[in-house]
Structure formats: structure tokens, C-alpha cells
Design a protein that fits this description.
The complex is a heterodimer of chains A (333) and B (299).
Chain A: H1 6-12, H2 20-24, H3 34-63, H4 73-76, H5 84-90, H6 93-125, H7 131-145, H8 148-158, H9 165-170, H10 177-180, H11 182-207, H12 211-219, H13 224-235, H14 237-253, H15 257-261, H16 272-280, H17 286-315, H18 318-328
Helix pairs in contact in A: 1-18, 3-17, 5-17, 6-11, 6-14, 7-11, 11-14, 12-13, 14-17, 14-18, 16-17
Chain B: H1 5-14, H2 19-23, H3 25-58, H4 77-84, H5 88-119, H6 125-138, H7 145-154, H8 161-185, H9 190-197, H10 202-213, H11 215-230, H12 234-239, H13 248-257, H14 264-289, H15 294-297
Helix pairs in contact in B: 1-3, 4-14, 5-8, 5-11, 6-8, 8-11, 9-10, 11-14, 13-14
Classes of the chains: A mainly alpha (333), B mainly alpha (299).
Amino acid sequence: MTAEPAEQVLAGGGPGRRPRRARRGAAEDVAGLGFLGAGAFVAPALALIGLFLVFPALWTIYLGMTDYRLTGLQAVDPTFVGLDNYERILGDPSFWRSLRLTLVFVLLSGIVGQSLLGFAIAWALRRLSGWLKGIVETLVLAAWVIPASVSSFLWIALLDRRGGTLNALLGTEGTAWLIEHPMPSIIIFNIWVGTAFSMLLFSSALAAVPPSQLESARMAGAGGWAQLRDVVIPNIRGHILTNTLLITLWTFNTFTPYLVTAGGPNGASEILAVYIYNTAIPGGQLGVGAAISLIMLLINLVIALGYLRVGRARAARPAEATAVETAGGGETA
Amino acid sequence: MTTSGTPEAATRADRPAPLPARVARAPRARHFVSRVLTVLGLALLLVFFGLPLAWLATAPFTSAPTLAVGWPDWTLDNFARIGENRYAVGSFVNSAIIGFGTCAVVLVLGAFASYALSRVRIPGRDGLLYALLLLSSIVTGTAAMVPTFQLITLLGLIDTHLAVVLVISGGTLPTVIFILKDFMDSIPRSYEESARLYGAKPWQILRDVVVPIARPGLAFVAVWTLVQVWGNFLVPYLLIRRTQQQPAAVLMYTFYTEAGQADLRLLSAFALIFSVPIIVMYFLVNRRYGFRFHGGIKS
């Protein structure tokens, strides 16, 4: 239920493009499993995936058309209400506000913030080595790796109105950042958490840019910007695409801002993930929550399919396709 | 480092330089400016990423920690607080149960499935793998929280570790199978052939021949799964309400959201102990396997 396998989807590139190794050793049934035996080996895993991954997704469609509640009569005996939930959601200004906040959040913290900052760090570090590079990388990675409930508290402490370090540094005593500026707070928090991925992806992408091309650009008198624009960007276009898709999907699905602001104050930072939770669990309206879940699943589907289409179109051009392969994961052992 | 460009540029400017060198002066000046900007940017970066983390590094060792970052007096008393709290130690046990439980489920089921998929050409195999991967990146814990909650309620598994194990396993298995199948594909088949000649059954071949060879792959998947589960907040938060059953990720959250003043001595020590295993595991895998798995290991 986490979003990380998307990277592997890219590596595979679709059913038509098998990983390299499969070509070398075509599947031979050396253990004498046979179809039945193979089926028996695969069945338990498929059953678990079916019950806890596929079924919930499909069941959402039904749940979203009932008046299920967490407590009371409808918890025991829910009735089928058709599209009432959707009518309610689409007529609810708080849903549209949440959707708008989500868009801003994904755009600023994910696509702009994490990608640009991650690229900038990778670019700045590309020719550095030694302790400075080590420290920067370690800090950025640490922010990414530590558990969400810890990093959230670190930011709550940093932004605290009375004792926070930020107010002490800026001399802005008494500013309650999380209450006065909840959206900027969770956007910057999410950039802090997630930049590591873009940094790593772009570092490996930059390392793969042919040095000869950069060299000849430099000989021709191209400055940093010109090199970036004319040599680097065209070379790493595949990585940029991969990065943008994954960051979009992950940022859209992150629940971590809940730990910082819980969607408050008064829903001012209630991105869709938090909106679903607040509606379904504390709000007790499971049916409505399921309906919003389905909307979220559909948006995920659109993002993923949109990417696949672009990816397919690109895979048709072989030169760039290899770039994705090195990014997504070629060799494994 | 930043000034290295200037002296050379100056000497060149002093003598009546040929035209190309004079043209080169502007880029050099720009080079210098961009160097300064880079260093300035890196300094800002260090502050941005380091400042929040500084609290985690100092507060646990401060005898009276506040929310602000301060110089620690290197006491270890705060760690004793963990033992005094009613739930803290238990929450680590819960985290470990959920973590190793998920590992076990995912490794066993994943090994069987990936082996069969690697060795037998089941019709539609590649399509199936691909569809499952796509599905697992679309049906995220966040998007599916309501039906998952309902399903677990229906199964009567609310407040159990098993619920968390099953839900996370279902979500991670597609990736696990994908990674393991790649490992399995790389194992030479001749060993299995000879084992079969001696009359070994398929599951015996898997247990005695394939698994020992695929150990690096299995180890990687084990660590990967642990990292996924250890920090996971949403699934246990959703499915486990009783404090005694909660893993560290959820207990940590209740520490600072409960009514009343948060006990920063307990909280800081707890946060550090909770974070260290995952940081160690991460950098371990990082060193062994390099970037390719970075994206996979933490979402």
C-alpha cells in the first residue's frame, strides 16, 4: 500500500519489455513444478494481495454508495443510497477547498520544491567531494529516513510559538507558524522530508551524462547555464519525467502532514488524504469517506496512466529508453 | 576554493592580452560569482536540513530539554524515562512484532511466488506482475484507508498486530515478488536440475538449493520490508486503538498530542531510540546496494 513500487514499474516499462535477464535464461521448469505446482506456489501470495489490496479498492465502489457510519444504526445495518454521497461531496465547499489545497500542496512542495531543490543539490554537489558533500547528503537523507512521527515533532518543536528555534533565530517571538501559516508550513515540511529522493535520482542521472558532451560544450565556451540547458537537460529528460511522476504520486498520497497540523486550524491545511481521514474516522461517515477514497483512487489511476502513456511514447525512441532503465534499475544481483 | 579563479584572471588582465583572453574575463567573473552563490546556497541548505535534526541529536542528552535547540550537557538520564513509561518499552516490542511478522509473511510468500514465476512460464505472467505493481502504486494506504478499516473491522481483527501485518504485506508483496523474481532469474538452473535428478521435490529444491543461493536477495527484501514497516504510521494508527498494542510510531505521536505538557525528556530519548535502527539499516543497505534501491527502500 505504499507507492514505492512505481519505480519498478518504470524499470519494467510494461508487459512488452521484460527485464534483461529474462531474455538470457528463458523460463525453464527445472524444478518440475508444472502449471499446477506453480499455481500452488503463487496462490498464497495472490490471495493475500487479492484480499488486502485488490478487494479494498473494488469494495470502495460499493461502500461509497452506502450510508455506513462508524457508530449508530447505520453501522450495523447500512442502506444503499446510490450516488447520494457523491452529490453531497461535490456540493460541499470543504471538499473543493481540500482539493484546491491538495493541488497547491502537490505543485509547490512536490513538483516545484522537491524536484528543483533536489536537482539543485545534485548539481551543486556533482563535482564536490569529501566532507562537505558527505555532510549535505547525510543530512538530506536523514530527513528522509527518520520515521514520520519523529520528523513531524521536530518541525512542531522548530515552529513552536513560544519555545521554537525558528522564532528565536528570526526574532519573531510569538509567531504561531502552524496556526498563522499552516499551508506554507506543511509545504516546507514536506520539501524537507522528501527532497532526498530527487537528489539521489538526479545525482545518478548527472553522473550518467557523457563527459565528452560536457567537455565539448565547455570548449565551445558554454557557461554553466548553457551547459545545463543544452547538454544536461536533454540527457536527463527521462529522469525528470520519472521523478515528476513519482513525486506527484507520493506527495498526493502522503499522510504525514496530518501529524503536523492534523488538517487544522479549521481545515486550512486539510489536504485530501487528511480530509478522508477526518471525514471517515473522527467524523464517523465511512460511506462518504469511501466515496472520497474512490475519487482519490481514480486520480491516482489517472496520474499513473498518464505517465505510462508518456513513458510508452518515449520507449519507442530507444536512445532515451535506456536512460530510464539505468535510472529505474537494471541489474539487481 | 572560491578565490582560485581571481588571481589568474587578474594577471591575464594586466598584460596586454590577446583578444580571446580578454573575452574570457567575463565568464571568469561569472564563474567566481556562481562559486560564491554555490557555497552560500550550501550553507543555507545545511541550516535548513540540519536545524530540525539538531534537536534530535541534542535534546536526548540535555538534562532539561526545551523545544529550542541548545547545547547538551551529555546526560543519559533521559533514557531511563523510557523504562519508567508504562507503554514505551512495549511499543518497541510491538513495532518489532509487526516488523518481523511482516518480514516473515512477505519473505515466505514472496519466495514461493517469485520462484514459480521465475521458472514456469504461466500464461500472462508478465502482464500479471506488471498489473500488480501498477495496482500497488495506485492503491496506497492513504487512498484505501476507509475500505481497509472496514475490512479489518469485518474480520474482527481491529486492535491486533495481525491486521497490520496482513495489510502491509498485501501492499508490499507485489514489489517483493518483483525484486525477488529478478534475483531468482539470475540463479543458474543447473543446481536445480541435479537436485531434481536425485529426486528432490520442488519445495525441497526451493528450500535447500534456491533459498541459500538467493540469500542476498532475501536479505535485501527483509531490510527493505523492515524499513517500510518500522516507520509506518497510518496503518497501525488506523487499525490499533488500544495503547498497549500500539507500535512506537503511533505512541510517539500520542506523546506530543496528548492533553497536557509533553514530557520532552521522555519524548526526545524515545524519538532517538526509535530512529536509530532505521537510520542504521538504511545506510547499511545504501552502502551495499547503491542508489538503485534508494527509491524503493523508503517512500
